[in-house]
Amino acid sequence: MTFIEIFSRFFLFKHEDKVMQLNYLKSRRITEGATLRLLSILKMLAQIHVFLGILMLILSALADYVSSRKNTIRLNGLLECCSFYFVVMGSVGLCGAASYRRGLVIAILVMSVHAILIFVPGIVIVSSFDIHFHKHECWGSCDWHLLATSLPQNSQCQILCGTNVDEHKRSVMTRLGTDYRLDAGLIALAGLELLFAIATFLISLKIICSKITQQPIVEMMPLTAPQVQQADQSNKQEP
Predict the structure, then answer these.
(1) Count of H helices and E strands in the chain?
(2) Which is higher by pLDDT, 181 or 229?
(3) What superkingdom heads the lineage (predicted)?
(4) 101 by DSSP, 3-state: which?
């Protein structure tokens, strides 16, 4: 089998697969034109998710870098994981819009729910705490490691802000929070991500569950012998 034959068969298989997916969506009583419009909107939303996820990934990595330079406490890696999830969600949406696969549309529907309920609020909450601690010049200390698997008995943590922290306490405590400009940018992008995640959820739900009125099927009845003779006579009478 030559390379051209293999390529032609592969192309034919992909074309038949797309036709089958379109036929499936049409069998769900969605017209082909409406299906293509919804999938094009889903593709645009998926591209926005990828773009926003990459921006948040860059900002969160930059915030971790600034935090390490100033020796402040920050939940390193948490915002990066949320941002990477948005990139993955957008990638799944691009694959679903390009291949017309219902399973991928369901996947981005579920991922958009996760983004709305878990990942966007997580970014907003963590960044809000960082802004609050940085604005009020808060310092903290614990007599146990923050990443310890179990807490010791009679353990103690302390957070002091503003004028309550003198030079001696600063020498034994750790600064909390990060530059508010980075966290404010993350919160703004998370708000945009929330809006587009809601739009993605609605579009995906419409692709899966939408129904339109089908056109009535017109059945053609065979003509009887008298009707055929009458039709012939009318054709002969016409000039």
Answers:
(1) 8, 4
(2) 181
(3) Eukaryota
(4) coil
